[in-house]
Protein backbone atom coordinates (compact mmCIF):
# COMPACT_ATOMS: atom_id res chain seq x y z
CA UNK A 1 0.00 0.00 0.00
CA UNK A 2 1.57 3.29 -1.12
CA UNK A 3 0.61 6.66 0.35
CA UNK A 4 1.45 10.20 -0.75
CA UNK A 5 1.37 12.91 1.93
CA UNK A 6 1.01 16.42 0.49
CA UNK A 7 2.67 18.92 2.82
CA UNK A 8 5.57 18.21 5.17
CA UNK A 9 4.99 20.92 7.76
CA UNK A 10 4.62 20.16 11.45
CA UNK A 11 1.41 18.12 11.04
CA UNK A 12 2.24 16.63 7.63
CA UNK A 13 5.50 15.34 9.11
CA UNK A 14 3.75 13.62 12.02
CA UNK A 15 1.31 12.03 9.56
CA UNK A 16 4.10 10.71 7.30
CA UNK A 17 6.10 9.31 10.25
CA UNK A 18 3.07 7.54 11.70
CA UNK A 19 1.99 6.00 8.37
CA UNK A 20 5.56 4.94 7.53
CA UNK A 21 5.36 2.34 10.32
CA UNK A 22 2.95 0.30 8.16
CA UNK A 23 3.01 1.67 4.63
CA UNK A 24 5.31 2.93 1.89
CA UNK A 25 5.15 6.74 2.21
CA UNK A 26 6.24 9.57 -0.10
CA UNK A 27 6.10 13.17 1.11
CA UNK A 28 5.58 16.11 -1.28
CA UNK A 29 6.50 19.67 -0.32
CA UNK A 30 8.21 22.68 -1.89
CA UNK A 31 10.15 23.44 1.30
CA UNK A 32 13.50 21.61 1.30
CA UNK A 33 13.99 22.21 5.05
CA UNK A 34 10.70 20.40 5.80
CA UNK A 35 11.68 17.47 3.57
CA UNK A 36 15.20 17.22 5.05
CA UNK A 37 13.78 17.24 8.57
CA UNK A 38 11.43 14.39 7.66
CA UNK A 39 14.20 12.39 6.01
CA UNK A 40 16.41 12.81 9.09
CA UNK A 41 13.63 11.25 11.21
CA UNK A 42 12.95 8.31 8.89
CA UNK A 43 15.15 7.45 5.90
CA UNK A 44 12.56 5.06 4.43
CA UNK A 45 10.21 7.95 3.59
CA UNK A 46 10.67 9.13 0.00
CA UNK A 47 10.63 12.91 -0.46
CA UNK A 48 9.71 14.92 -3.56
CA UNK A 49 10.22 18.68 -3.92
CA UNK A 50 7.06 19.84 -5.66
CA UNK A 51 4.95 22.97 -6.00
CA UNK A 52 1.57 21.61 -4.94
CA UNK A 53 -0.27 24.51 -6.56
CA UNK A 54 0.56 22.91 -9.96
CA UNK A 55 -2.78 21.11 -9.98
CA UNK A 56 -2.49 20.03 -13.62
CA UNK A 57 0.41 17.76 -12.61
CA UNK A 58 -1.52 15.78 -10.02
CA UNK A 59 -2.54 12.92 -12.29
CA UNK A 60 1.10 12.33 -13.34
CA UNK A 61 2.53 12.74 -9.85
CA UNK A 62 0.01 10.64 -7.97
CA UNK A 63 -0.88 7.84 -10.40
CA UNK A 64 1.43 5.34 -8.57
CA UNK A 65 -0.25 5.88 -5.17
CA UNK A 66 -3.15 4.06 -3.53
CA UNK A 67 -4.19 6.86 -1.22
CA UNK A 68 -3.41 10.57 -0.77
CA UNK A 69 -3.30 12.66 2.41
CA UNK A 70 -3.59 16.44 2.00
CA UNK A 71 -1.98 18.57 4.72
CA UNK A 72 -1.52 21.85 2.82
CA UNK A 73 -2.27 25.42 3.98
CA UNK A 74 -5.95 26.36 3.88
CA UNK A 75 -5.65 28.83 1.02
CA UNK A 76 -4.88 26.05 -1.49
CA UNK A 77 -6.79 23.33 0.39
CA UNK A 78 -9.99 23.18 -1.66
CA UNK A 79 -8.27 23.21 -5.05
CA UNK A 80 -5.79 20.58 -3.83
CA UNK A 81 -8.59 18.28 -2.69
CA UNK A 82 -10.50 18.84 -5.94
CA UNK A 83 -7.41 17.96 -8.00
CA UNK A 84 -6.78 14.79 -5.97
CA UNK A 85 -10.40 13.67 -6.46
CA UNK A 86 -10.11 14.48 -10.17
CA UNK A 87 -7.08 12.19 -10.29
CA UNK A 88 -9.35 9.40 -9.01
CA UNK A 89 -7.52 8.85 -5.71
CA UNK A 90 -8.96 8.04 -2.28
CA UNK A 91 -8.02 10.87 0.06
CA UNK A 92 -8.00 11.99 3.70
CA UNK A 93 -7.83 15.77 4.10
CA UNK A 94 -6.95 18.02 7.05
CA UNK A 95 -6.50 21.40 5.33
CA UNK A 96 -8.69 24.06 6.90
CA UNK A 97 -10.27 25.91 3.95
CA UNK A 98 -13.29 28.25 3.87
CA UNK A 99 -15.13 26.64 0.93
CA UNK A 100 -17.99 24.15 1.38
CA UNK A 101 -16.38 20.73 0.91
CA UNK A 102 -19.72 19.03 0.19
CA UNK A 103 -19.70 20.73 -3.23
CA UNK A 104 -17.13 18.07 -4.22
CA UNK A 105 -19.38 15.14 -3.26
CA UNK A 106 -20.81 14.69 -6.78
CA UNK A 107 -17.33 14.71 -8.35
CA UNK A 108 -16.05 12.15 -5.80
CA UNK A 109 -18.99 9.83 -6.54
CA UNK A 110 -18.41 10.17 -10.31
CA UNK A 111 -14.71 9.35 -9.85
CA UNK A 112 -15.41 6.46 -7.46
CA UNK A 113 -13.39 8.16 -4.72
CA UNK A 114 -13.68 7.93 -0.93
CA UNK A 115 -12.78 11.34 0.56
CA UNK A 116 -12.73 11.84 4.35
CA UNK A 117 -12.36 15.57 5.03
CA UNK A 118 -11.71 17.92 7.96
CA UNK A 119 -10.05 15.01 9.71
CA UNK A 120 -7.98 16.67 12.42
CA UNK A 121 -8.68 17.45 16.06
CA UNK A 122 -11.22 20.27 15.58
CA UNK A 123 -12.71 19.97 13.09
CA UNK A 124 -12.17 16.22 13.30
CA UNK A 125 -12.60 14.42 16.61
CA UNK A 126 -15.40 16.84 17.57
CA UNK A 127 -17.21 15.78 14.37
CA UNK A 128 -16.68 12.07 15.09
CA UNK A 129 -18.24 12.60 18.54
CA UNK A 130 -21.34 14.47 17.36
CA UNK A 131 -21.79 12.02 14.47
CA UNK A 132 -21.68 9.05 16.83
CA UNK A 133 -24.08 10.45 19.43
CA UNK A 134 -26.46 11.65 16.72
CA UNK A 135 -27.08 7.94 16.03
CA UNK A 136 -27.71 7.17 19.71
CA UNK A 137 -29.80 10.08 20.99
CA UNK A 138 -31.75 13.15 19.99
CA UNK A 139 -29.20 15.94 20.45
CA UNK A 140 -30.41 19.37 21.59
CA UNK A 141 -27.05 21.13 21.76
CA UNK A 142 -23.40 20.72 20.84
CA UNK A 143 -20.50 22.84 22.12
CA UNK A 144 -16.83 22.58 21.27
CA UNK A 145 -13.99 24.53 22.91
CA UNK A 146 -10.44 24.07 21.61
CA UNK A 147 -7.02 25.68 21.73
CA UNK A 148 -3.40 24.84 20.93
CA UNK A 149 -1.23 26.87 23.33
CA UNK A 150 2.40 27.28 24.41
CA UNK A 151 3.33 25.77 27.75
CA UNK A 152 5.23 28.95 28.73
CA UNK A 153 3.36 31.93 27.25
CA UNK A 154 5.30 35.16 26.79
CA UNK A 155 4.02 38.71 26.28
CA UNK A 156 2.79 40.47 24.28
CA UNK A 157 0.78 37.72 22.54
CA UNK A 158 0.84 34.87 25.11
CA UNK A 159 0.56 32.62 22.07
CA UNK A 160 2.48 30.51 19.58
CA UNK A 161 0.89 29.02 16.47
CA UNK A 162 1.14 25.24 16.28
CA UNK A 163 0.06 25.53 12.63
CA UNK A 164 0.23 28.12 9.84
CA UNK A 165 -0.13 31.68 11.31
CA UNK A 166 -1.88 32.69 8.07
CA UNK A 167 -4.63 30.17 8.89
CA UNK A 168 -4.80 31.44 12.50
CA UNK A 169 -5.40 35.02 11.32
CA UNK A 170 -8.13 33.75 8.99
CA UNK A 171 -9.85 32.26 12.05
CA UNK A 172 -9.74 35.69 13.67
CA UNK A 173 -11.26 37.54 10.71
CA UNK A 174 -13.65 35.02 9.10
CA UNK A 175 -17.20 35.56 10.43
CA UNK A 176 -18.33 32.64 12.58
CA UNK A 177 -21.47 30.67 11.87
CA UNK A 178 -23.43 29.15 14.75
CA UNK A 179 -26.77 27.40 15.14
CA UNK A 180 -29.19 29.09 17.52
CA UNK A 181 -32.75 27.80 17.95
CA UNK A 182 -32.51 25.93 14.67
CA UNK A 183 -31.32 28.93 12.66
CA UNK A 184 -27.86 29.63 11.21
CA UNK A 185 -26.62 32.92 12.66
CA UNK A 186 -23.43 34.75 11.76
CA UNK A 187 -21.43 36.61 14.39
CA UNK A 188 -18.06 38.35 14.21
CA UNK A 189 -15.05 36.18 15.02
CA UNK A 190 -13.69 36.91 18.52
CA UNK A 191 -17.19 37.78 19.80
CA UNK A 192 -19.01 36.50 22.92
CA UNK A 193 -15.87 36.14 24.99
CA UNK A 194 -16.07 34.15 28.23
CA UNK A 195 -13.56 32.92 30.80
CA UNK A 196 -13.40 29.16 31.45
CA UNK A 197 -11.32 27.13 33.89
CA UNK A 198 -9.54 23.95 32.80
CA UNK A 199 -7.85 21.40 35.07
CA UNK A 200 -4.04 21.58 34.99
CA UNK A 201 -4.20 24.65 32.70
CA UNK A 202 -6.10 27.32 34.62
CA UNK A 203 -8.19 30.13 33.20
CA UNK A 204 -8.57 30.52 29.44
CA UNK A 205 -10.65 32.87 27.30
CA UNK A 206 -13.15 31.36 24.82
CA UNK A 207 -14.52 33.25 21.80
CA UNK A 208 -16.47 32.53 18.62
CA UNK A 209 -14.69 31.23 15.52
CA UNK A 210 -16.02 29.62 12.35
CA UNK A 211 -15.35 26.05 13.41
CA UNK A 212 -18.67 24.27 12.81
CA UNK A 213 -18.02 23.99 9.08
CA UNK A 214 -19.78 20.92 7.60
CA UNK A 215 -21.86 20.40 10.77
CA UNK A 216 -24.07 23.34 9.76
CA UNK A 217 -25.22 21.29 6.76
CA UNK A 218 -24.96 17.68 7.98
CA UNK A 219 -26.33 18.28 11.50
CA UNK A 220 -28.73 21.13 10.71
CA UNK A 221 -31.48 19.37 12.71
CA UNK A 222 -29.61 20.08 15.98
CA UNK A 223 -31.04 23.38 17.26
CA UNK A 224 -27.97 24.77 19.07
CA UNK A 225 -24.34 24.34 18.00
CA UNK A 226 -21.25 26.46 18.58
CA UNK A 227 -17.48 26.20 18.47
CA UNK A 228 -15.16 28.49 20.37
CA UNK A 229 -11.39 28.90 20.28
CA UNK A 230 -9.38 29.05 23.53
CA UNK A 231 -6.50 31.42 24.28
CA UNK A 232 -4.70 32.75 27.34
CA UNK A 233 -6.43 35.87 28.69
CA UNK A 234 -4.96 39.03 27.14
CA UNK A 235 -4.36 37.60 23.67
CA UNK A 236 -7.71 38.59 22.17
CA UNK A 237 -7.48 42.21 23.36
CA UNK A 238 -4.25 42.55 21.42
CA UNK A 239 -5.74 40.93 18.30
CA UNK A 240 -8.78 43.23 18.42
CA UNK A 241 -6.46 46.25 18.79
CA UNK A 242 -4.50 45.16 15.69
CA UNK A 243 -7.72 44.57 13.78
CA UNK A 244 -9.19 47.95 14.70
CA UNK A 245 -5.93 49.65 13.75
CA UNK A 246 -6.16 48.13 10.26
CA UNK A 247 -3.39 45.51 10.48
CA UNK A 248 -5.64 42.83 8.94
CA UNK A 249 -6.93 44.96 6.05
CA UNK A 250 -6.53 43.42 2.61
CA UNK A 251 -6.45 46.66 0.59
CA UNK A 252 -2.85 47.32 -0.48
CA UNK A 253 -0.94 50.36 0.77
CA UNK A 254 1.82 51.92 -1.32
CA UNK A 255 5.08 52.15 0.66
CA UNK A 256 8.17 53.41 -1.19
CA UNK A 257 6.92 52.29 -4.62
CA UNK A 258 5.82 48.89 -3.31
CA UNK A 259 2.19 47.82 -2.88
CA UNK A 260 1.63 45.64 0.17
CA UNK A 261 -1.54 44.75 2.04
CA UNK A 262 -1.50 45.24 5.83
CA UNK A 263 -2.66 41.62 6.19
CA UNK A 264 0.35 40.30 4.23
CA UNK A 265 2.69 42.49 6.26
CA UNK A 266 1.12 41.40 9.58
CA UNK A 267 1.20 37.72 8.57
CA UNK A 268 4.88 38.00 7.71
CA UNK A 269 5.68 39.57 11.08
CA UNK A 270 3.57 37.11 13.06
CA UNK A 271 5.04 34.06 11.34
CA UNK A 272 8.25 34.80 13.24
CA UNK A 273 6.59 36.12 16.38
CA UNK A 274 4.29 33.08 16.68
CA UNK A 275 6.65 30.39 15.46
CA UNK A 276 7.15 27.53 17.89
CA UNK A 277 10.85 27.04 18.55
CA UNK A 278 12.26 23.56 17.91
CA UNK A 279 11.32 21.41 20.92
CA UNK A 280 9.24 24.22 22.48
CA UNK A 281 6.60 22.64 24.68
CA UNK A 282 2.93 23.25 23.90
CA UNK A 283 -0.37 21.53 24.58
CA UNK A 284 -3.84 21.02 23.13
CA UNK A 285 -6.86 21.53 25.36
CA UNK A 286 -10.35 20.63 24.18
CA UNK A 287 -13.85 20.09 25.55
CA UNK A 288 -16.83 18.72 23.60
CA UNK A 289 -20.29 18.80 25.21
CA UNK A 290 -23.31 17.01 23.74
CA UNK A 291 -26.70 17.45 25.45
CA UNK A 292 -30.03 15.75 24.79
CA UNK A 293 -32.67 13.42 26.23
CA UNK A 294 -31.93 14.63 29.75
CA UNK A 295 -28.25 13.74 29.68
CA UNK A 296 -24.94 15.50 29.12
CA UNK A 297 -22.02 13.72 27.48
CA UNK A 298 -18.63 15.40 27.80
CA UNK A 299 -15.31 14.55 26.14
CA UNK A 300 -12.14 16.22 27.44
CA UNK A 301 -8.61 16.24 26.09
CA UNK A 302 -5.39 17.64 27.49
CA UNK A 303 -2.48 16.51 25.32
CA UNK A 304 1.12 17.69 25.66
CA UNK A 305 4.23 17.91 23.49
CA UNK A 306 5.92 14.51 23.24
CA UNK A 307 9.56 14.98 24.33
CA UNK A 308 10.51 11.44 23.33
CA UNK A 309 9.48 11.74 19.67
CA UNK A 310 9.83 15.56 19.60
CA UNK A 311 6.30 15.82 18.21
CA UNK A 312 4.07 18.80 18.98
CA UNK A 313 0.73 18.11 20.60
CA UNK A 314 -1.15 19.81 17.76
CA UNK A 315 0.67 17.56 15.28
CA UNK A 316 -0.17 14.47 17.38
CA UNK A 317 -3.84 15.26 18.00
CA UNK A 318 -4.48 16.40 14.42
CA UNK A 319 -2.12 14.06 12.60
CA UNK A 320 -3.09 10.83 14.35
CA UNK A 321 -6.80 11.48 13.82
CA UNK A 322 -5.95 11.81 10.13
CA UNK A 323 -3.85 8.62 10.06
CA UNK A 324 -6.62 6.76 11.90
CA UNK A 325 -8.96 7.73 9.03
CA UNK A 326 -6.37 6.58 6.47
CA UNK A 327 -6.44 3.19 8.21
CA UNK A 328 -10.25 3.11 8.07
CA UNK A 329 -9.89 3.18 4.27
CA UNK A 330 -6.86 0.86 3.92
CA UNK A 331 -8.39 -1.75 6.25
CA UNK A 332 -11.71 -1.66 4.41
CA UNK A 333 -13.67 -0.39 7.43
CA UNK A 334 -14.97 2.56 5.41
CA UNK A 335 -15.29 2.48 1.64
CA UNK A 336 -18.38 4.51 0.69
CA UNK A 337 -17.88 6.78 -2.33
CA UNK A 338 -18.25 10.54 -2.03
CA UNK A 339 -17.14 13.27 0.37
CA UNK A 340 -17.51 12.42 4.04
CA UNK A 341 -16.77 14.80 6.91
CA UNK A 342 -16.02 12.74 10.07
CA UNK A 343 -19.55 13.06 11.46
CA UNK A 344 -20.84 10.98 8.53
CA UNK A 345 -18.10 8.35 8.98
CA UNK A 346 -18.96 8.02 12.69
CA UNK A 347 -22.49 6.82 11.89
CA UNK A 348 -20.77 3.42 11.93
CA UNK A 349 -19.86 2.60 15.54
CA UNK A 350 -16.99 0.36 14.34
CA UNK A 351 -15.37 3.38 12.64
CA UNK A 352 -15.83 5.63 15.68
CA UNK A 353 -14.41 3.02 18.07
CA UNK A 354 -11.47 2.33 15.74
CA UNK A 355 -10.49 6.03 15.62
CA UNK A 356 -10.75 6.51 19.40
CA UNK A 357 -8.76 3.29 20.07
CA UNK A 358 -6.13 4.32 17.52
CA UNK A 359 -5.68 7.68 19.29
CA UNK A 360 -5.46 5.99 22.68
CA UNK A 361 -2.72 3.66 21.40
CA UNK A 362 -0.75 6.82 20.57
CA UNK A 363 -1.42 8.27 24.04
CA UNK A 364 -3.92 10.85 22.80
CA UNK A 365 -6.29 10.17 25.66
CA UNK A 366 -9.85 11.43 25.41
CA UNK A 367 -11.80 11.22 28.68
CA UNK A 368 -15.54 10.68 28.40
CA UNK A 369 -18.02 11.39 31.20
CA UNK A 370 -21.80 11.28 31.22
CA UNK A 371 -24.34 12.85 33.54
CA UNK A 372 -28.07 12.26 33.76
CA UNK A 373 -30.13 15.34 34.55
CA UNK A 374 -31.95 15.30 37.89
CA UNK A 375 -35.66 14.73 37.44
CA UNK A 376 -36.83 16.92 40.30
Work out the count of structural domains: 2
Which stretches are poorly predicted, pLDDT < 50 over at least 5 residues? none
**CATH architecture classification name of the largest domain:** 2-Layer Sandwich
Major sheet: size, sense and barrel closure?
A: 7 strands, parallel
Shape: globular
CATH class call of the largest domain:
Alpha Beta
Helix content: 25-40%
Distance between the termini: 57 Å
| Average residue pLDDT | 95
What is the CATH homologous superfamily assignment of the largest domain?
Dihydrodipicolinate Reductase, domain 2
Total beta-strand segments = 18
In the CATH hierarchy, the third-tier topology of the largest domain is known as: Dihydrodipicolinate Reductase, domain 2
Number of helices: 13
Q: Which strand order spans the largest sheet, edge to edge or round the barrel?
A: 3-2-1-4-5-6-17
CA gyration radius, whole angstroms? 20 Å
Question: How big a fraction of the residues is strand?
Answer: 25-35%
Structure classification: alpha/beta
Amino acid sequence: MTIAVLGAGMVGRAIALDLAKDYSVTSFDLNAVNLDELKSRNKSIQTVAADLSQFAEYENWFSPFDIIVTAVPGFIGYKTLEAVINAGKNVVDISFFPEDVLQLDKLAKEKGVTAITDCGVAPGVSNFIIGRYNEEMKIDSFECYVGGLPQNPKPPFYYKAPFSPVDVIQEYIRPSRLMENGTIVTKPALSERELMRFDEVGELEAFNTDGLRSLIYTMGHIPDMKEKTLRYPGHVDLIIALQEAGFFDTTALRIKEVDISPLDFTSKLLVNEWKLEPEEEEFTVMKVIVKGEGKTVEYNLLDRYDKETKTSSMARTTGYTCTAAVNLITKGLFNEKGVFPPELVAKDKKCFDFVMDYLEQRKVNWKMSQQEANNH
